[in-house]
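B., you asked whether I could sanity-check this one before it goes into the benchmark set. Here's the sequence:
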Amino acid sequence: MPQKPGKYGILFRVITDARARYLSRMIPYTGRCEDKAANSSAQIVRNITEHIRGSGKNITMDRYYTTVDLAEELVKERNLTMLGTLQSNRKEIPEKFKQAKGRDVHSTLFAFIGECMLLSYVPKKGKVVLMLSTEHDSPQISDRKKPETAGNLRLQRGQGRRRYS
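And here's what the prediction gave me:
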């Protein structure tokens, strides 16, 4: 399509406080580095969370950044918990968790990998949502047949109900 606009923009990696709506740190993407390790999603998270190391805070992240190895490192070495969605192509995820076929709507599977809780939730027919948490240590499902982890993810991303006074 010749009339389709080009994709231009500026990418910022940001760490914020969702409740207070406070920007804590922001790192602009300046292009690829020659050092491939510096471009990795894990290294980006390490750099952006360095100033809150040891604080015991929780980090909510996108599926691009969430891995089991990074989650365990954040808990053990940095005293930070994390909650995030996962890409289905991650090697740590069992095949049973990736498939929606044969599973009921609102069904949830839980697994524990070291310090991490892996969750597979079917919100509607044919769709699977994968989540990883080091913040939660027990499988809990709310009254609305939704895992508590999914509700926490919305609230921590600032997508929950807002009350203004």
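One thing to flag: Confidence is low (pLDDT under 50) at residues 159-165. Otherwise nothing jumped out at me.
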